[in-house]
Design brief:
5 helices, mainly alpha
């Protein structure tokens, strides 16, 4: 994990970071990450989990996973 973090954070240019992510991830993996970020943002705004699932077309388990991730982020 340390190598990955270093690889992604050693650049200051956002376009270079974007290229690095595109090299590492498939288009589907990128879409999944974007979806997770949306879930976390909506949860942080207080949107109910079932509404998020319906709005984004994901399962409730996916939103629940996002809820756990948000809790972990807030503990940092």
């Amino acid at each position: 994990m340390k190598d990955l973090v270093q690889f992604l954070t050693e650049v200051d240019d956002k376009s270079v970071l974007e290229k690095r992510l595109k090299v590492l991830l498939t288009p589907n993996e990128i879409n999944e990450m974007v979806s997770r970020l949306k879930i976390i943002a909506l949860l942080d705004e207080g949107v109910p989990q079932r509404d998020i699932a319906k709005q984004l077309g994901v399962g409730i388990a996916t939103v629940t996973r996002g809820s756990r991730a948000l809790k972990e982020l807030k503990e940092i």
